[in-house]
Design brief:
The protein is α/β, with parallel strands linked by helices. It has helices spanning 19-30, 42-50, 65-79, 102-127, 155-178, 195-206, 213-222, 232-243, and strands spanning 10-14, 34-39, 56-59, 84-87, 137-142, 182-189, 254-257. A 7-stranded parallel β-sheet has the order 3-2-1-4-5-6-7, sandwiched between helices. α1 packs across α8 (232-243), α3 runs parallel beside α4 and α4 runs parallel beside α5. The longest helix has 26 residues, at 102-127.
């Protein structure tokens, strides 16, 4: 993002192999940061990292406490520190409440909420005084406009992203009270036509909520004052802003990056 300088910063981005995470990794790098991409998709993650100057890759299942510990240690060793953690990894399950599958929802809860919780935990441990990095920093959690609107077919997903918002605010307070020197914020992306965004349009239409995927997309645009879907760069630029010193007094907030859809 033009005008924001992250030179010398070291960042870890979960779910960074593709989609929004890849865009975030690229934008952070363009602003001067060095980035470690963390993902369960090893081959794709390594390929993505190879295409970003100075980036590295570490395999990470965000629901595993042990893998988080390893990933953070690897990042600090490879990049020489850690200043930014972006908890972007997540999945979306499209189901009507009356058809909710416990196993699919449990997996989504663990990835979206437990995974983010563990990301905050290990970011704090590394960045706080006496930690492996020890110079403070910033954590950016990726929630969703789904946390602020009632869109049919995504009740469980909306619940996880609402929880990410609450987690963010408590984490910011704990960091401040305990002197960790780590700011914690989250963003609410609007619908972006990544693989996950397209999947949502297709699946909500399959549930009979919309006539077809195009109608689902049109419904989202109709709810959006800016009159369009989001772009990866819209979301990635917000992450760069929250990682930068220009947001130094922004803490414990949820930043809508949704074209006004969730207002």
């Amino acid at each position: 993002m033009a005008g924001l300088d992250l030179t010398g910063r070291r960042a870890l981005v979960t779910g960074g192999a593709r989609g929004l995470g890849q865009g975030m990794a690229e934008a952070l790098t363009a602003a001067g940061a060095r980035v470690m991409i963390a993902d369960v998709l090893k081959d794709l993650g390594e390929q993505t990292a190879a295409g970003i100057a100075g980036a590295g890759f570490v395999e990470l299942d965000v629901t595993s406490d042990a893998q988080w510990e390893t990933a953070i240690a690897h990042t600090v060793a490879e990049l020489g520190g850690l200043d930014i953690v972006v908890n972007n990894a997540g999945i979306e399950v499209t189901q009507l409440i009356v058809d909710a599958d416990p196993d699919e929802h449990r997996r989504m809860y663990e990835i979206n909420l437990l995974g983010t919780t563990l990301g905050v935990k290990h970011a704090f441990r590394a960045m706080r005084p006496g930690g492996a990095a020890g110079n403070g920093g910033t954590v950016i959690n990726v929630a969703s406009v789904a946390a602020t609107i009632a869109f049919p077919g995504i009740a469980g997903y909306s619940a996880t992203k609402s929880a990410v918002d609450r987690l963010t605010r408590v984490a910011a307070m704990e960091s401040g009270k305990l002197g960790y020197g780590v700011r914690v914020n989250c963003i609410y992306p609007g619908l972006v036509p990544t693989e996950m965004g397209v999947k949502l349009a297709v699946e909500t239409s399959q549930l009979g909520l919309f006539e077809n995927p195009d109608a689902a997309v049109a419904a989202v645009i109709e709810l959006t004052p800016s009159g369009r879907l989001g772009e990866v760069s819209d979301i990635a630029d917000a992450v760069v802003f929250l990682a930068s010193d220009q947001s130094r007094f922004v803490n414990g907030v949820g930043l809508p990056v949704d074209g006004g859809m969730g207002m």
